[in-house]
């Protein structure tokens, strides 16, 4: 953003709560003008507290989704049917860890602390995507996750590359490139199964049947029940509503399912000539809200595993911190 910069500092600026800030109206106008002009807001720019809080909430939830999302697929690394499939899956799961790291870094530019965000995830005070509370029962689920879950993630995240907050938007560019590879590997895996033996075809169909509806729920509640959309769209954090993106995803998936030789489990799915879009059946929102409350098939397993991984990784964090201290001491000594 060209205007409303805070004086240069080494850390993001956080005005003391309640401090009389006579410049605030001018700063707020400059912020509004920058957003209206499609300029990027950067970490040291002034921003409303609620804008900062909304970004921290969404980016943290996104980061948590990436690292929790490693679990359902990692479940299949040791059982991948060939060395090639195993190598691809390992690379994909590692990419998800990388996405988590970019996103936690983006949240840190807003003044959030990574330890605090992880603590909020582990104690259930922050969410991660509903989709990762479903189990991966067969190898075909790895394909369905790639095709549908990564496909939904891309549909949602491509517009986030134009998000008004610079660090989040820039992180999304690389994330989307990698997600695009993930989506293709899932599609290719499902295609191989669909064209395989009758048992393999049935396995692919069963996976699509189970992942279709939860994938549609990833886009969030219907617009009328979306508490944050209106303000987030004014701030250009979100560029499209939940229902718009969900519709876009359905329209993309229908021809892809046909090419795969698989069906989507929705008898009401049909092309609507007038709208130029597909009509689709009613989503079971009671299931979505129940999963969000912690009652999905895998909520407990996912968070228990995450807490355990965090505890078991304590020595790595300590070693990295000790190494960083030694490194900077050595640098100072030779300076
Ligand atoms: N799950 O007012 P809205 C991936 C909550 S990454 C859980 O509409 P908003 C990659 C929402 O937080 C997948 N909670 O909210 C991968 C709010 O609750 P709160 C993650 C949800 O933020 C692939 C309440 O409902 N992607 O898959 C969900 O404006 C394969 C009201 O909702 C992102 O996070 C949900 N699905 O819109 C990794 C993308 N939906 O906080 C591994 C960035 C809504 O007030 C393997 N996020 N809620 O308590 C976004 O674009 C937005 O945050 C939405 C929700 C669109 C998800």
From TrEMBL:
<dbReference type="InterPro" id="IPR011881">
    <property type="entry name" value="PaaA"/>
</dbReference>
<protein>
    <submittedName>
        <fullName>Phenylacetate-CoA oxygenase subunit PaaA</fullName>
    </submittedName>
</protein>
<dbReference type="InterPro" id="IPR009078">
    <property type="entry name" value="Ferritin-like_SF"/>
</dbReference>
<dbReference type="InterPro" id="IPR012347">
    <property type="entry name" value="Ferritin-like"/>
</dbReference>
<dbReference type="InterPro" id="IPR007814">
    <property type="entry name" value="PaaA_PaaC"/>
</dbReference>
<dbReference type="Pfam" id="PF05138">
    <property type="entry name" value="PaaA_PaaC"/>
</dbReference>
<feature type="region of interest" description="Disordered">
    <location>
        <begin position="1"/>
        <end position="23"/>
    </location>
</feature>
<dbReference type="InterPro" id="IPR052703">
    <property type="entry name" value="Aromatic_CoA_ox/epox"/>
</dbReference>
């Amino acid at each position: 953003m060209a205007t409303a910069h805070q004086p240069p500092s080494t850390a993001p600026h956080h005005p003391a709560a309640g401090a009389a800030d006579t410049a605030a109206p001018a700063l707020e106008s400059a912020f509004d003008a920058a957003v209206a002009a499609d300029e990027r807001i950067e970490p040291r720019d002034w921003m409303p507290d609620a804008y900062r809080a909304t970004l921290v909430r969404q980016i943290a939830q996104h980061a948590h989704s990436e690292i929790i999302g490693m679990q359902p697929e990692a479940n299949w690394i040791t059982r991948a049917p060939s060395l090639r499939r195993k190598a691809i899956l390992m690379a994909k799961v590692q990419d998800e860890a990388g996405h988590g790291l970019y996103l936690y870094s983006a949240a840190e530019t807003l003044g959030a602390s990574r330890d605090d965000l992880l603590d909020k995830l582990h104690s259930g005070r922050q969410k991660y995507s509903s989709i990762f509370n479903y189990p991966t029962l067969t190898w075909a689920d790895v394909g369905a996750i790639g095709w549908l879950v990564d496909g939904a993630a891309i549909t949602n995240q491509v517009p986030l590359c134009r998000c008004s907050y610079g660090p989040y938007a820039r992180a999304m560019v690389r994330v989307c490139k990698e997600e695009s590879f993930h989506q293709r590997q899932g599609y290719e895996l499902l295609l191989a199964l669909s064209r395989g033996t009758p048992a393999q075809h049935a396995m692919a169909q069963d996976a699509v049947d189970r992942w279709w509806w939860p994938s549609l729920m990833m886009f969030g509640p219907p617009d009328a029940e979306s508490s944050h959309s209106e303000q987030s769209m004014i701030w250009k954090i979100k560029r499209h509503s939940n229902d718009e993106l969900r519709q876009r995803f359905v329209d993309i998936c229908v021809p892809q399912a046909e090419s795969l030789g698989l069906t989507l489990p929705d008898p009401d799915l049909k092309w609507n000539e007038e709208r130029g879009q597909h009509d689709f059946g009613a989503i079971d929102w009671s299931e979505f809200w129940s999963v969000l409350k912690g009652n999905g098939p895998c909520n407990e397993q996912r968070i228990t595993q995450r807490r355990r991984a965090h505890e078991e990784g304590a020595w790595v964090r300590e070693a990295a911190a000790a190494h960083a201290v030694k490194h900077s001491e050595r640098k100072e000594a030779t300076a």
